[in-house]
Amino acid sequence: MLIEKKYLDIAKHEEEEIQKDLDEEYAKMTEEQKLEKKKQQEEEVKELIRRAEERMQKVKKIADSRKIMKFTYLQKAAIELAAHLQMNVKIERKDNDLWGTIEFSFDRMWILESTPREWIETWNRLVKEANSVYIETKDDMIVYQYSFDLSIEIPCI
Q1: Among residues 56, 55, 64, 59, which one has the least CA distance to residue 152?
Q2: 106-127 confidence digits (pLDDT tens)
Q3: In Å, how far from its chain's centre is CA 115?
Q4: Chain-centre distance of CA 145, in angstroms?
Q5: DSSP category for residue 107
């Protein structure tokens, strides 16, 4: 039995159709309508920025020592995992930064029944603990980037 669903292909086709419709609609617009649309978009962006700034005035982000300690443990485990699985690894965290990233790049990966449990647990822990995971292909490599928020929010007084 073979089950194959090409959700990516469908989504790309739908995206192309939507973009085509938008391009056609934009081509039909007068210069005045285009300027009005641009003005509306600028207003929406300004409103988003205003809301973000308002929120930033209500809370302050400070480093969370527990999160930093957990990130330190994860980065050590990531380095060990990269060595065993023959991957490139890049870990980034600046002293004053409230975010950390762990990035793996590799051309292939095999996880077999014989793969040590702790390696699989490390991989799963990275996914579980990260605030976001970004995956792309870049320069003929598969790149996984895990981002970690190392802060907590406290109300401003």
Answers
A1: 64
A2: 999 988 999 999 999 999 999 9
A3: 27
A4: 7
A5: S
